[in-house]
Amino acid sequence: MAENHQEVTLFAALLGSFVANYVHAIVDFIWWVPACLILLLMQAACACRLYQITRRRRNTDRFEEPVIYFPRFIIWGVSCFVALIAGWMVQQAHGVWMGEQDYQAFQRLALVNTEPTDAMGTPSESLADTFNETTSANSGFSAEQRLAYAQQQLVERVNLLIQAALKNPNDVELRAKVAEGYLIYFELLQSKSDNPMSTQQIRDTVYASGFTSQDEMHEWLKRAFGNNVQFLYAAHQHTLAALRLCPLQGDVYLQYAQLAFLDGAPEEAIESCLSQAQEVRPFDADVLFERGRFEWTRGEYETGLNLWKEAFHQEVRIQKRIIRLVSGPLPPKTVVEFFEPDWLALRRIVQQYRNIQDPEMLNEVLSIYALRAIQEAAREGNDEAVNAWVQAAQAYRELDQLQNAEQCLIAAIKRYPHNYTLHESYAKLLYSMSRMEEAEKELRWCLDYKPDDQALRRRYELVQSKRLRNFSPVQLTSGQEEEANH
Question: Coil, helix or strand for 330?
Answer without folding.
Answer: strand
